[in-house]
Amino acid sequence: MKKIIISTLAVSALFFTAGCNTDFDTDVKDIVVTKGDADFTTYVSIGNSLTSGYRDNALYIDGQNESYPNIIAGQMRLAGGGSFTQPLMADNNGGLIFLGSVIQAPKLVIQSFVNGAPNIAPIAATPTTDLLNKVTGNINNFGVPGAKSYHLVAPGYGNLAGVVAGTANPYFVRFSSSATTTVVDDAANRNPTFFSYWIGNNDVLGYATSGGTGVNRLGNTNPATYASNDISDPTVVAGSIKAGLDKLKAKGATKGVIANIPYVTTIPFFTTVPYNPLTPTALGANLAALNTNLYGPLKQALTALGAGSRINLLSSTTANPVLIKDVALTNLSAQLTAALTPSLGAQTAAAFGQIYGQARQTTSEDYIILSTRAVIGTTATGAPSSINVYGISYPLENQHVLSKAEAALVKTATDSYNTAIKGLADSYGLAFVDANAKMFELNGQSGISFDGVRYTAKFITGGTFSLDGVHLTGRGYAIIANEFIKAINLKYKSTLPQVDANKYSGVTFP
Q1: Whose CB has fewer CB within 10 Å in the chain, the N or C terminal residue?
Q2: How far is C-alpha 164 from the chain's CA centre?
Q3: φ, ψ for residue 332 (rounded to 5)?
Q4: Partners of residue 142 on adjacent β-strands
């Protein structure tokens, strides 16, 4: 067997490697590949977009071919594993059409660089994957983009008639065996000898990426009442995963691997834009005027109301936070209006009170989402012309920032999910992947290293995440595949070799 570390000098030149943790650097050419106590003859993978190979905000062929289950299946074939079939899209642009209309946009690409920053936008192409062209035959990858834990065991999730109503998932519609089946039932009916199960990310992700505009459904165990941007009740998540495992077990599938959920706040979608992106240089001559005409009066009035910590004067020497509307704050609109009326006049004071009643500056415990980068500094529609610059003189609305309080709700839910997932892994005797720990490692300053190439969770330059800031590149999926392989080998005494992440694709530059 060949050594698994393969040098890629062209890639390694792009990354600084000192101080990194090394995932593998051992020559394994003399190790015989064995299946151990496992049987890899028929492997199925169950999950969401991460399982499907989704990347760059789309599902497309090259991404699917570098999905972590497909990578794992390739190593399983060295130990008697069979073929692994995926419901491939029609092209490498991604996106979906239904009845002549585009219902899912194609993938993101870097179109150019502006002042050194990438200009990212959908590729100029029309999707060719038609929802009505059903994928038939045996499928092994049951990763469904957008699926939450309870969707995998929900009858009708692949029903074409439910696409318009929003009760069905178009990606599952493409390959579901019937209008009434479930994702797990179709997977179980393949009579798998081995499975992977990774679900739960979307049960908090929609809430987080929407800036906490959804509802925390703690205590509500009826998913039929949930919106797409709600946090799922932990009991629902645990119960749904257990129901899926029971369906697999009933078909004789008792050996597999299950993974926990990374904290969403460790991914580039939440870590790329700093909480304090307003530099003195960028603010220029406006800085002094803002302090005199806006920040100063607000600070004085709020201090008198016992809320002076909400606003501080802009600094001329260090980076400054942005203004946001925090819906969790007590609304001081009326009090602020009254306090400002003597100095600003009734009309202007009323406008200030309405706009800044729940305003504050961001702190290091808030997360400005990736898409907000394009909003900061733009004109707020309908705002008074003198105070209409988003994030600077006009507060960013709730959907643009995941606040400290909202992030805490996400973390609490994720911790509950992960406790349940580990318990299920133990009670069902499954291999367990601590994906959360791996993401912490990637998000660390040193990251990890493969044969001299450094990988981190930094947007674009880290090599791990694709252009949507949420999903992985081929190299990122290879890193995850190796975590699954390690867990499988540990549990089932197999010797599946890890893959060299450097062999897979990263971000494509123009």
Answers
A1: C
A2: 25
A3: -105, 25
A4: 46
> 365-387 pLDDT, tens per residue?
999 999 999 999 999 998 888 89
Q: How far is 60 from 505, CA to CA, in rounded Å? A: 14
φ and ψ at residue 368, rounded to 5 degrees: -85, 125
Q: What number of residues does the chain have?
A: 510
In this structure, what DSSP letter does residue 105 have?
Answer: -
Instruction: Indicate the burial class of 461 (C-beta count within 10 angstroms; 0-12, 13-18, 19 or more).
Output: middle
CA distance 315 to 276: 11
Q: Round to the nearest angstrom and report the end-to-end CA distance of the chain.
A: 37
State the pLDDT at residue 20.
Answer: 53
Q: In this structure, how many other beta carbons lie within 10 angstroms of the beta carbon of residue 14?
A: 12
Nearby residues of 177 by Cβ (< 8 Å), 6 or more positions away? 158, 186, 189
For tokens 């943790």, name the residue. Answer: 21
89 contact partners, CB below 8 Å, separation of at least 6: 59, 60, 61, 64, 129
Do the Cβ atoms of 130 and 99 come closer than 8 Å?
A: no
Buried/exposed code over 361-397 (b: 16+ C-beta within 10 A; e: otherwise):
bbeeebbbbbebeebbeeebeebeeebbbbbbbbbbb
- Determine contact, residues 457/503, Cβ cutoff 8 Å: no
At 15, the pLDDT band (50, 70, 90 cuts) reads very low
- Using the structure block, give the residue that is written with the tokens 């008639």: 161
Alpha helices in 22-99 (DSSP H): 49-52, 61-65, 68-76
Which of 475, 470, 480 shows the shortest CA–CA distance to 508? Answer: 475
Distance CA 200, CA 259 (A): 9
Model-wide pTM > 0.90: yes
Question: Which is it for the CA torsion 34, 37, 39, 44, positive or negative?
Answer: negative
Q: Retrieve residue 406's tokens.
A: 């909202």
Q: Which of 219, 322, 217 is nearest to 279 (CA)?
A: 322
Count of CA atoms in the C-beta half-sphere (13 A) of 316: 8
Q: Is residue 48 helix, strand or coil?
A: coil
CA 413 to chain centre: 15
Determine contact, residues 440/266, Cβ cutoff 8 Å. yes
Dump pLDDT digits (tens) for 390-413. Answer: 999 999 999 999 999 999 999 999
Closest CA to 465 of 65, 12, 50, 55: 55
85 pLDDT higher than 50: yes
Eight-state DSSP code of residue 191: -
Rounded-to-integer distance, Cα 86 and Cα 103, Å:
21
Task: Give 257's DSSP letter.
Answer: E
d(CA 273, CA 269) in angstroms, rounded, equals 8
Q: Two tokens at 266?
A: 């460790």
Torsion of CA 462, 468, 469, 473, to 10 degrees: -40
Residue 24, helix vs strand vs coil: strand
